[in-house]
Design a protein that fits this description.
mainly beta; Immunoglobulin-like; 2 domains; four-stranded antiparallel beta sheet; four-stranded mixed beta sheet; about 10% helix; about 50% strand; binds copper (II) ion
Length: about 200
Protein backbone atom coordinates (compact mmCIF):
# COMPACT_ATOMS: atom_id res chain seq x y z
CA UNK A 1 0.00 0.00 0.00
CA UNK A 2 2.70 2.47 1.05
CA UNK A 3 4.75 1.51 -1.95
CA UNK A 4 1.95 2.06 -4.44
CA UNK A 5 1.14 5.47 -2.89
CA UNK A 6 4.75 6.53 -3.22
CA UNK A 7 4.81 5.27 -6.80
CA UNK A 8 1.66 7.26 -7.58
CA UNK A 9 3.12 10.39 -5.99
CA UNK A 10 6.27 9.90 -8.05
CA UNK A 11 4.29 9.60 -11.27
CA UNK A 12 2.35 12.76 -10.48
CA UNK A 13 5.56 14.68 -9.74
CA UNK A 14 6.98 13.47 -13.04
CA UNK A 15 3.91 14.75 -14.88
CA UNK A 16 4.12 18.17 -13.20
CA UNK A 17 7.83 18.60 -13.87
CA UNK A 18 8.64 16.95 -17.20
CA UNK A 19 12.26 16.09 -17.70
CA UNK A 20 14.15 18.88 -19.44
CA UNK A 21 11.44 21.50 -18.86
CA UNK A 22 12.64 25.07 -19.23
CA UNK A 23 12.45 26.95 -15.96
CA UNK A 24 12.40 30.72 -16.08
CA UNK A 25 15.66 32.55 -15.71
CA UNK A 26 16.20 36.14 -14.66
CA UNK A 27 18.25 39.14 -15.66
CA UNK A 28 19.78 41.48 -13.14
CA UNK A 29 22.42 44.10 -13.29
CA UNK A 30 23.55 47.64 -12.90
CA UNK A 31 23.49 50.58 -15.26
CA UNK A 32 26.29 53.09 -14.99
CA UNK A 33 25.69 56.54 -16.42
CA UNK A 34 28.80 58.60 -15.63
CA UNK A 35 27.38 61.79 -17.16
CA UNK A 36 24.21 61.74 -15.06
CA UNK A 37 23.72 62.65 -11.41
CA UNK A 38 21.71 59.45 -10.94
CA UNK A 39 21.30 56.24 -12.90
CA UNK A 40 17.65 56.02 -11.81
CA UNK A 41 14.66 56.01 -14.18
CA UNK A 42 16.34 54.03 -16.95
CA UNK A 43 14.01 51.53 -18.60
CA UNK A 44 15.59 48.13 -19.24
CA UNK A 45 13.62 45.80 -21.49
CA UNK A 46 14.24 42.47 -23.18
CA UNK A 47 13.06 42.48 -26.78
CA UNK A 48 12.40 39.46 -29.01
CA UNK A 49 10.00 38.80 -31.88
CA UNK A 50 6.55 37.47 -30.99
CA UNK A 51 6.51 38.14 -27.25
CA UNK A 52 3.03 38.16 -25.76
CA UNK A 53 1.99 40.85 -23.28
CA UNK A 54 -0.99 40.86 -20.93
CA UNK A 55 -1.93 44.31 -19.66
CA UNK A 56 -2.74 44.49 -15.95
CA UNK A 57 -6.46 44.78 -15.10
CA UNK A 58 -5.85 47.64 -12.67
CA UNK A 59 -4.54 50.97 -13.94
CA UNK A 60 -0.94 51.93 -13.26
CA UNK A 61 -0.92 55.07 -11.11
CA UNK A 62 1.14 58.22 -11.57
CA UNK A 63 0.80 60.87 -8.91
CA UNK A 64 1.17 64.59 -9.41
CA UNK A 65 2.75 65.71 -6.18
CA UNK A 66 4.68 68.86 -5.29
CA UNK A 67 4.51 69.81 -8.99
CA UNK A 68 6.21 66.58 -10.08
CA UNK A 69 5.11 63.43 -11.85
CA UNK A 70 5.76 60.58 -9.38
CA UNK A 71 7.28 58.29 -10.50
CA UNK A 72 9.12 60.39 -13.08
CA UNK A 73 9.37 57.43 -15.48
CA UNK A 74 6.79 54.64 -15.70
CA UNK A 75 7.13 51.55 -17.91
CA UNK A 76 4.02 49.60 -18.94
CA UNK A 77 3.01 47.05 -21.56
CA UNK A 78 0.80 48.05 -24.49
CA UNK A 79 -2.87 47.87 -23.63
CA UNK A 80 -2.26 49.08 -20.08
CA UNK A 81 -4.14 52.04 -18.62
CA UNK A 82 -2.46 54.82 -16.67
CA UNK A 83 -4.36 56.72 -13.98
CA UNK A 84 -3.04 60.18 -13.07
CA UNK A 85 -3.84 61.39 -9.58
CA UNK A 86 -3.60 64.89 -8.18
CA UNK A 87 -2.09 65.06 -4.70
CA UNK A 88 -1.57 68.84 -4.78
CA UNK A 89 -3.85 71.65 -3.67
CA UNK A 90 -3.60 73.22 -7.15
CA UNK A 91 -5.14 71.98 -10.39
CA UNK A 92 -3.08 69.84 -12.77
CA UNK A 93 -3.37 68.88 -16.43
CA UNK A 94 -1.80 66.08 -18.48
CA UNK A 95 -1.09 66.14 -22.16
CA UNK A 96 1.34 64.29 -24.41
CA UNK A 97 2.65 65.54 -27.77
CA UNK A 98 3.45 61.98 -28.92
CA UNK A 99 0.21 60.52 -27.58
CA UNK A 100 -2.04 63.25 -28.97
CA UNK A 101 -4.12 63.35 -25.78
CA UNK A 102 -5.01 66.18 -23.43
CA UNK A 103 -6.91 65.07 -20.35
CA UNK A 104 -8.04 68.55 -19.28
CA UNK A 105 -7.42 69.85 -15.80
CA UNK A 106 -8.58 68.51 -12.47
CA UNK A 107 -8.50 69.11 -8.73
CA UNK A 108 -6.91 67.44 -5.74
CA UNK A 109 -8.37 63.98 -5.16
CA UNK A 110 -9.63 63.56 -8.72
CA UNK A 111 -8.01 61.50 -11.48
CA UNK A 112 -7.92 60.91 -15.22
CA UNK A 113 -7.03 57.81 -17.25
CA UNK A 114 -5.62 56.97 -20.66
CA UNK A 115 -5.05 53.57 -22.28
CA UNK A 116 -1.88 53.11 -24.35
CA UNK A 117 -2.27 50.86 -27.37
CA UNK A 118 1.04 51.44 -29.16
CA UNK A 119 4.62 50.93 -27.96
CA UNK A 120 6.68 54.09 -27.70
CA UNK A 121 7.87 56.85 -25.41
CA UNK A 122 5.19 59.34 -24.36
CA UNK A 123 6.25 62.59 -22.73
CA UNK A 124 3.86 63.74 -20.00
CA UNK A 125 3.43 67.49 -19.63
CA UNK A 126 1.16 69.84 -17.66
CA UNK A 127 -0.19 73.01 -19.29
CA UNK A 128 -0.56 74.65 -15.87
CA UNK A 129 3.04 74.00 -14.76
CA UNK A 130 5.42 74.09 -17.70
CA UNK A 131 8.29 72.78 -15.58
CA UNK A 132 6.50 69.48 -15.02
CA UNK A 133 7.72 66.57 -17.15
CA UNK A 134 7.37 62.81 -16.95
CA UNK A 135 7.56 59.79 -19.23
CA UNK A 136 5.43 56.76 -19.94
CA UNK A 137 7.36 54.07 -21.82
CA UNK A 138 5.04 51.57 -23.49
CA UNK A 139 6.57 48.19 -24.31
CA UNK A 140 5.60 45.09 -26.29
CA UNK A 141 7.55 42.78 -24.01
CA UNK A 142 6.58 41.43 -20.59
CA UNK A 143 10.22 41.59 -19.49
CA UNK A 144 11.24 44.99 -18.19
CA UNK A 145 12.35 46.98 -15.16
CA UNK A 146 13.11 50.58 -14.25
CA UNK A 147 16.40 51.27 -12.49
CA UNK A 148 16.50 52.62 -8.96
CA UNK A 149 18.83 55.31 -7.60
CA UNK A 150 21.84 52.96 -7.67
CA UNK A 151 21.22 51.99 -11.29
CA UNK A 152 20.35 48.44 -10.23
CA UNK A 153 17.55 46.47 -11.86
CA UNK A 154 16.11 42.96 -11.81
CA UNK A 155 13.82 41.27 -14.33
CA UNK A 156 12.39 38.03 -12.86
CA UNK A 157 10.70 35.07 -14.57
CA UNK A 158 12.21 35.40 -18.03
CA UNK A 159 11.63 32.54 -20.49
CA UNK A 160 14.99 31.09 -21.58
CA UNK A 161 16.14 32.33 -24.97
CA UNK A 162 17.96 35.04 -26.86
CA UNK A 163 16.97 38.67 -26.41
CA UNK A 164 18.07 42.15 -27.25
CA UNK A 165 18.42 44.08 -24.02
CA UNK A 166 17.44 47.71 -24.55
CA UNK A 167 18.25 50.53 -22.15
CA UNK A 168 16.24 53.74 -22.56
CA UNK A 169 17.05 56.95 -20.72
CA UNK A 170 15.41 60.33 -21.25
CA UNK A 171 18.81 62.00 -21.42
CA UNK A 172 21.12 59.43 -23.04
CA UNK A 173 21.33 57.50 -26.27
CA UNK A 174 19.33 54.25 -26.24
CA UNK A 175 21.72 51.32 -25.94
CA UNK A 176 21.13 47.71 -27.00
CA UNK A 177 23.03 44.53 -26.18
CA UNK A 178 22.36 40.92 -27.22
CA UNK A 179 21.91 38.60 -24.24
CA UNK A 180 21.04 34.95 -23.58
CA UNK A 181 18.85 33.81 -20.71
CA UNK A 182 19.37 30.24 -19.51
CA UNK A 183 16.84 27.98 -17.83
CA UNK A 184 16.70 28.54 -14.08
CA UNK A 185 19.72 30.82 -14.02
CA UNK A 186 20.30 34.51 -13.38
CA UNK A 187 22.06 36.47 -16.12
CA UNK A 188 24.14 39.36 -14.78
CA UNK A 189 24.56 42.48 -16.91
CA UNK A 190 26.66 45.58 -16.47
CA UNK A 191 25.89 48.42 -18.83
CA UNK A 192 27.53 51.81 -19.28
CA UNK A 193 25.42 54.47 -20.97
CA UNK A 194 26.83 57.51 -22.71
CA UNK A 195 25.62 60.30 -24.95
CU1 LIG B 1 0.52 70.70 -13.10
Amino acid sequence: MMKSLAATAGAVALLLVPLGAANPGSVNGTVIAPSLRSAADIVISLQAPGLHVTPPKAPVEIDQRNLHFVPHVVAIVKGATVKWLNDDSVKHNVFSPEGGYDLGSWNHGESRTHTFTKPGVYTQLCRLHTEMEGYVVVLDTPYFAVTGESGAFRIPDVAPGKYTLKAWSEKLKTTTKPIAVESGKPTAIQLTLGH
